[in-house]
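Exercise 7. Given the encoded structure of a 157-residue chain, write a plausible sequence.
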């Protein structure tokens, strides 16, 4: 039975029945959800029309921004490590000093990384407590695994 439907759809595509449909190439507006109570839909639309969003959506945006920020911190310290690795090969007599400086930078970066991730976990928890439904829940950051990954991706010099 499913094969017949697929075949009919393909035949319609071949005939060009789906070309030049109204709204083609435009984003579909599927905002009306029959499972959301009418009053809630009205309030949400009023908020949206006036530039407001529910708090959990704002927190979700903050979470995404903080995830990006913590990723940027890791990328920066890895880039710094590669740069210093080249410097050590170019100037082997300064290698001990460069290694000590990098270890301080690495320790500070790791402390900042952990601090960011703890703050991120707090926001995730807050978002999970206020977000409606199970499908919008976010996973907490596993600090131990993430710190281990940091140390693996950015080892000592």
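Solution.
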């Amino acid at each position: 039975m499913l094969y017949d439907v697929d075949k009919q759809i393909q035949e319609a595509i071949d005939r060009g029945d789906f070309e030049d449909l109204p709204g083609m190439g435009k984003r579909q507006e599927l905002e009306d959800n029959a499972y959301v109570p009418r009053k809630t839909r009205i309030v949400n639309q009023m908020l949206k029309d006036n530039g407001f969003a529910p708090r959990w959506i704002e927190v979700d945006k903050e979470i995404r921004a903080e995830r990006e920020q913590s990723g940027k911190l890791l990328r920066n310290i890895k880039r710094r490590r590669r740069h210093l690795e080249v410097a050590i090969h170019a100037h082997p007599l300064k290698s001990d000093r460069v290694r000590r400086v990098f270890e301080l930078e690495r320790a500070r970066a790791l402390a900042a990384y952990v601090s960011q991730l703890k703050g991120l976990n707090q926001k995730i928890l807050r978002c999970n407590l206020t977000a409606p439904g199970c499908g919008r829940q976010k996973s907490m950051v596993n600090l131990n695994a993430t710190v281990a990954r940091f140390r693996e991706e950015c080892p000592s010099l």
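Remark. The two ends are 63 Å apart (CA to CA). Students should compare their own answers with the one above.
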